[in-house]
Amino acid sequence: MGAAGHVRDGAVAVVDGRIAAVDGYAAIAARFPGLPVLGDGGGIITPGFVSCHGHFSEGLVTGIGETHTLWEWFVHVVEPIEAHLTREMAFVGTVLKATEMALSGVTTVGDMFCSAPGRSPVTPGIVDALDVVGVRGDVSFGPADVPHDRSIDAIVAEHHALAQAAAASRRTRFRVGLATIPASSDALLAATRSLLAETDRLHVHLHEVREEVTASRTSRGASSIEVAARLGLLDAQTVAAHCVWLSDDDVALLRRHAVAVAHCPVSNMILASGVCQVPRLLRDAVPVGLGVDGAASNDSQNMLETVKAAALLQKVHHQQADVLTAPAVLRMATLGGARALGLDDTVGSLDVGKAADLVLFAEASPSMAFVHDPYQAVVYCAGTRDIAGVWVDGERIVADARILTADLPAILPRARELAVELATRAGLASELAIT
Ligand SMILES: [Zn+2]
To answer: How remote is the CA of residue 386 from the centroid of ligand 1, in Å?
Structure first.
């Protein structure tokens, strides 16, 4: 994904957490004789994956509600938990889900935490958790105040608490978030515009389902994208989740405002939302990255599944095998995602000077024992068990498919307790197939 393209018999030299060289192994070994050598000589090194959209707020509600479409799922599964999330739940849920992502090669995660703002901030819990796991974060709080009226002051306070926590973190930065345009009052849209004057980055859902476009046209006389553009919200560096239902005018607006799309194929399929027109967006020079989406609508956080599903969904939808190829999908999962988050000067490719965010796929596994085409091997053959190492800023956080940073034996029992507590308080029992 860097200037060098793919390098056979290659190696990446890492010095002080940055990529110092990308070249053939012999040249690297000669130039950096003192560096320890990792890898077995037959694996594949890729840039760390960037998941540009998800919800750590769903970290404790996985595997519920498969029979719902998006709006039903929101009413029955997600909305009921929003008022019951605590900072500890945010921390524990994020440790679990960020670990799951790291084990599938994710080194940068874009997130939108959706909760009802209460008396004390909840979202700093996700920053604490990302500091523990060690993945890079681009985090936001995603408020809504329609149909449930919520205090704008409390919403702004939650944004500020998250921004403050991120500013003090190891690798996480803050972005302004907004759930959707139809779920926002005019006052919330105005407050969001004001927040963008402080932090010129926005994370928002746009046109995930047809109902959203209909609701926006009914209440405001224009699509959500048109409303957001008119209010100046898209003037910020914007990552928009989904963008499944787009008119030609919508696409033109995305392009004009350089809005990046976070494509989430697995949740789009689970919730039967529709098929994002990825080949068309790429043709029209709209930046596209991939997201695992939240743990309540995927329901895994496995980026390798998302990478493979992104290719398969377009192939079957277009009934055309070459409509989206492995190199194109891998590009969306790395450099495309980095561009979507405005982080492509730091991560997304194996280029000298960028952060050493790397994934090493091992040779010694049944699925990767031989490699004819490295792109197809990663997109179609690899599983998380094949990931021998993940590094962020040169710090190893995964070794041989095990997380090195988070203390899972300590956190798993607490996660079980909190998951039961949250489901009970939110009244989710009726959503379970087994009760
Ligand atoms: Zn989402």
So the answer is: 28
pLDDT in tens, 11-69: 999 999 999 999 999 999 999 999 999 987 889 999 999 999 999 999 999 999 889 99
Gap from CA of 241 to ligand 1 centroid (Å): 6
Separation CA 289–CA 252 (nearest Å): 18
Is 292 exposed, middle or buried, given 0-12, 13-18 or 19+ CB atoms closer than 10 A? Answer: buried
The partner residues of 238 in beta bridges, in order of sequence, read: 202
Q: Do 244 and 308 lie in a common domain?
A: yes
Do both 267 and 315 map to the same domain?
Answer: yes
Residue 269 placed within a domain: yes
Ligand 1 centroid vs 169 CA: distance in angstroms? 24
Mean pLDDT of 160-185: 98
Which class for 315: exposed (0-12), middle (13-18), buried (19 or more C-beta within 10 A)? middle
CA 55 / ligand 1 centre spacing (Å): 6
361-401: pLDDT as tens digits? 988 888 988 999 999 999 999 999 999 999 999 999 999 99
Domain containing residue 28: 10-47+360-403
Name the band, by pLDDT with cuts 50, 70 and 90, for residue 237. Answer: very high
Cα(61) to ligand 1 centroid in Å equals: 14
Per-residue pLDDT reduced to its tens digit, 177-187: 999 999 999 99
Query: What pLDDT is recorded for position 434?
Result: 67
CA of 264 to the centre of ligand 1 (A): 9
**Same domain? 34 vs 135:** no
Q: How far is the CA of 377 from the centre of ligand 1 (A)?
A: 29
Residue 98 lies in a domain: yes
Q: Under 8 Å CB-to-CB from 431, ≥6 apart: which residues?
A: 64, 65, 76, 77
Residue 187 CA to ligand 1 center (angstroms) comes to 22
Measured in Å, residue 321 CA sits from the centre of ligand 1 at: 28
